[in-house]
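Support request from a user on the community tier.

User writes: "When I paste my structure tokens into the form, the page sometimes reloads and wipes my input. The last time it worked, I copied everything first. Here is what I submitted, just in case something in the input itself triggers the reload:"
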């Protein structure tokens, strides 16, 4: 008896829900009939999700007490550290966030935790992505079922390329050489895989490395813009000697971590631990991402 009784909808606590990836995670779970608790920094940010049927919990990512309340009673939690492109030396802000997360997760004890990490989280050289290595190392010590989803370079970073492509037909590239194929992935694939992981059962810590269906060269990005715009578009490599001045002009006090991250991609030491053969492949193609970015501009 009761063999056909429906499974209880689980409760998923989602941080970063107002961003691209977190939004996809929540949408996927809601579509599957699950319960979602949106963890937001302000009531206004929670309104949209409340209207979509989510519970709303307010918490800053460095507030352990508020986070513990937000995670309490959840079957699974999705962790997304707010990105910092101009961190202080030694990443003290990240250390504080990770410490708060560690305390909150240990107290609330969700059955599963999925953390968005990055390709190259295992790299030994200090760079912008070291922040996520710090998160992995700290949270991996918890006696919980954890999955680190290491995502490739976001295809949506091409948002920066839209204006130059449209205005001048020349896109500046920090990724080089221009014919080198880089691991990239769409946020739709990241969110979908994260939502799938949240619903799986496992014991201990796992690492899942994710990239798109094929690797992408900067020249491929230019060619895709050219195809969609119906006119020539080309990439132009920015000499490394110009990077520091450019980044400082953009307001970065210490551009070194960002420059080292770009070096890591260009030199190949930011790569998946399992290499290209060991990664899970997404389904979303670059062209659909760039089409969407162009449509948003209209």
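"...and here is what came back when it finally went through:"
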């Amino acid at each position: 008896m009761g063999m056909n009784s429906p499974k209880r909808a689980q409760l998923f606590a989602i941080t970063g829900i107002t961003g691209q990836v977190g939004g996809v995670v929540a949408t996927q779970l809601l579509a599957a009939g699950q319960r979602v608790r949106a963890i937001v920094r302000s009531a206004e940010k929670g309104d949209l999700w409340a209207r979509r049927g989510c519970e709303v919990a307010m918490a800053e990512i460095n507030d352990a007490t508020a986070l513990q309340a937000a995670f309490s009673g959840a079957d699974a939690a999705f962790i997304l550290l707010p990105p910092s492109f101009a961190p202080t030396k030694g990443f003290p802000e990240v250390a504080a966030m990770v410490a708060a997360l560690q305390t909150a997760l240990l107290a609330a004890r969700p059955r599963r935790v999925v953390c968005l990490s990055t390709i190259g989280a295992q790299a030994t050289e200090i760079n912008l992505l070291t922040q996520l290595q710090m998160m992995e190392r700290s949270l991996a010590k918890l006696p919980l079922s954890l999955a680190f989803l290491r995502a490739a370079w976001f295809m949506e970073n091409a948002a920066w390329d839209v204006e130059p492509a449209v205005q001048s037909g020349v896109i500046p590239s920090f990724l080089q050489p221009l014919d080198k194929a880089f691991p990239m992935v769409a946020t739709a694939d990241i969110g979908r895989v994260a939502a799938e992981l949240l619903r799986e059962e496992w014991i201990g810590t796992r690492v899942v490395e994710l990239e798109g269906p094929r690797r992408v060269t900067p020249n491929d990005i230019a060619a895709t813009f050219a195809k969609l715009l119906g006119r020539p578009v080309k990439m132009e490599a920015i000499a490394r000697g110009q990077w520091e001045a450019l980044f400082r002009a953009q307001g970065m006090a210490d551009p070194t971590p960002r420059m080292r991250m770009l070096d890591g991609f260009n030199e190949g030491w930011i790569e998946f631990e399992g290499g290209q053969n060991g990664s899970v492949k997404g389904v979303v193609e670059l062209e659909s991402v760039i089409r969407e970015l162009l449509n948003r501009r209209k």
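Agent notes: The reload is a front-end session timeout and is unrelated to the input. Residues 95 and 134 are 7 Å apart (CA to CA). The longest strand covers residues 112-118. Escalated to web team.
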